[in-house]
Write a structure and sequence with these properties.
Largest sheet: 7 strands, mixed
Shape: globular
Number of strands: 13
Strand content: 15-25%
Helix content: 25-40%
Number of helices: 16
């Protein structure tokens, strides 16, 4: 058995994925101690309004179970016995728990964590991201977090920052791309279903179920983002495609991508609850579209394609017996067409949605970011 290292962790975001990370760490403590010589010591947890901090001793498993019970009830961390409020800026919170060797884990879906991530990076902390927004908004922030010299001039990616789950949940899309690039291979095209959420919706629509029913079901299962329009508007897929594009050295922004929206833009003004209550109005439109594809022996898939410095994202009718057509449920499929992988691409397929799969990917990133 390896000597035990205590690993300080500051977790931002205790929603579905953050809670699953906590549960999996508690469940696998013995495995990580025996196989990797690691014991995770949570020095802080933060949600959107509060934090629970224990920088000196760490939160024991009893306290972590209290947090899980609190969040399962939909209550904020400010109601925990150790909870303190914060303004939304996590930099002061991070400053108050200055512990060498900390890994900062971002399981939020917010851009408000960016200043804290940059502060953590400046301190030399390791960073694990499930949150796409820090890597897909400001290109300068992407470069500062991921590149060796903090600019777009260095093609080499940092080892102390991991973001595997931002694209494929538990499917190793980012690792595969980085290995292809590190080998000197040339990527000609990346194509596939980048969203387990939309994969689930599209394959359920094949059964001629109402669009509204399928979307609500995906939301209740935790497959969608907190606002399902991030998925249905193509924004979640766009962010994933943009991360891959930027990892390949393409200096692009979200507005450079061609993205098809699955609902009318006037529905953006609605609250999440009002949107979910009004989507029956889209049922006939989608029934007609599904029926038209089925009549041709095809099915609908929400496909992203990166090629020749451009990104196109939208619904396509594909043959039912094609690799994309054969996808079921929330599986993702990503095909890398490269100089070496031709005429047949390198294909990854696996579950691309769900908090447990994403949390497992986050946990793997935490282990790997430590290095030997």
């Amino acid at each position: 058995m390896s000597p035990i290292r205590e690993l300080p962790i500051f977790l931002m975001g205790v929603g579905g994925v953050g809670q699953a990370v906590l549960r999996q760490i508690l469940e696998h403590r013995d495995l990580h101690a025996f196989e990797y010589g690691i014991r995770y010591r949570f020095i802080g947890l933060a949600d959107s309004v509060g934090a629970v901090l224990a920088p000196e001793t760490g939160l024991d498993d009893g306290r972590l179970q209290e947090v899980l019970a609190l969040k399962a009830d939909g209550r904020p961390l400010t109601e925990h016995p150790l909870g303190v409020p914060h303004s939304g800026d996590l930099c002061p919170v991070l400053e108050g728990i200055h512990v060498a060797g900390t890994v900062v884990v971002d399981c939020t879906a917010s851009r408000r964590t960016i200043p804290a991530l940059l502060a953590a990076h400046a301190r030399g902390y390791a960073i694990v991201l499930a949150n796409k927004k820090p890597l897909t908004e400001d290109l300068e922030v992407y470069h500062r977090l991921t590149r060796v010299d903090g600019t777009g001039h260095s093609p080499r990616l940092l080892d102390r920052v991991r973001w595997e789950t931002t694209v494929g949940a538990g499917v190793p899309v980012i690792t595969t791309l980085h290995r292809i690039l590190a080998s000197g291979d040339t990527v000609h095209r990346i194509q596939g279903m980048f969203s387990g959420t939309l994969g689930y919706i599209m394959t359920e629509l094949e059964k001629e179920r109402p669009f509204s029913q399928v979307v609500r079901e995906a939301y209740e299962l935790g497959y969608t983002e907190p606002d399902p329009r991030d998925d249905l508007g193509g924004m979640d897929v766009a962010r994933k495609a943009l991360i891959l594009a930027r990892d390949m050295g393409w200096d692009m922004d979200l507005w450079d991508l061609d993205v098809e929206n699955l609902y009318p833009p006037e529905m953006d003004r609605l609250s999440v609850d009002a949107f979910l209550a009004s989507i029956e109005r889209l049922d006939q439109r989608w029934a007609d579209r599904v029926g038209g594809a089925l009549a041709q022996g095809k099915v609908l898939r929400y496909v992203a394609e990166l090629a020749d410095g451009q990104v196109h994202i939208g619904v396509r009718a594909v043959p039912k017996d094609s690799p994309l057509g054969q996808l079921t449920g929330s599986d993702n499929l990503v095909a890398f067409h490269t100089r070496w992988y031709r005429p047949h691409p390198l294909v990854l397929r696996g579950r691309g949605a769900g908090v447990e799969a994403t949390a497992a990917g986050v946990l793997s990133d935490i282990v790997e970011v430590l290095g030997p």
